[in-house]
């Protein structure tokens, strides 16, 4: 099977019984889905779990895809609802300070953070950290436009607002992102210039 097929051709093949065509779609969109899921969950393990759920849900609902928008726009809707559902179900773990193991858990989590310091200095991570400082609305529109590479019209459909409103929100979100980066990552931003 040729992997040069467009999304609609692959979807037709999947609906015709070709499961390998769905593997091509998963491979094509796995980074996209994982990045969005990680944005919601803030945790790599949770993002991996949610990503698997998203692809299962997308497979089951594939017959509902009408092709009115890009497949990635349709998939984003599934990502959004699945992540929100996951976050609602997830309970915060509470530990008693009387439990001696709680300090071991805290130490092990801290050492994991130290091991990731090198990675955190990368440009991508710096931008992701700055995005995490934004409001959820600003972060969502920045993520859709830059990471998910959605057009203004596609974002308008996903968010249920007018295209001009998307332009305004995106402009304001960019301004706030620039402010966050200058405030929290001034040295790194200067190093990039």
pLDDT < 50 stretches = 110-121
Instruction: Identify the overall geometry.
Output: globular
- pLDDT average, as an integer? 80
Structural Rg: 20 Å
Number of helices: 11
CATH-level-4 superfamily name of the largest domain = RNA polymerase sigma factor, region 2, helix turn helix motif
Q: What gap, in angstroms, lies between the N and C termini?
A: 46 Å
Amount of helix: over 70%
Query: Largest sheet at a glance?
Result: none
Structural class: mainly alpha
CATH class of the largest domain: Mainly Alpha
CATH topology of the largest domain: Rna Polymerase Sigma Factor, Chain: A
Strand portion: under 5%
The tally of strands reads 0
Tally of separate domains: 2
**What sequence of helices (H) and strands (E) makes up the elements?**
HHHHHHHHHHH
Gross CATH architecture of the largest domain: Orthogonal Bundle
Protein name: RNA polymerase sigma factor
Domain RNA polymerase sigma factor 70 region 4 type: 127-177
Organism: Terrimonas ginsenosidimutans
Family: Belongs to the sigma-70 factor family. ECF subfamily.
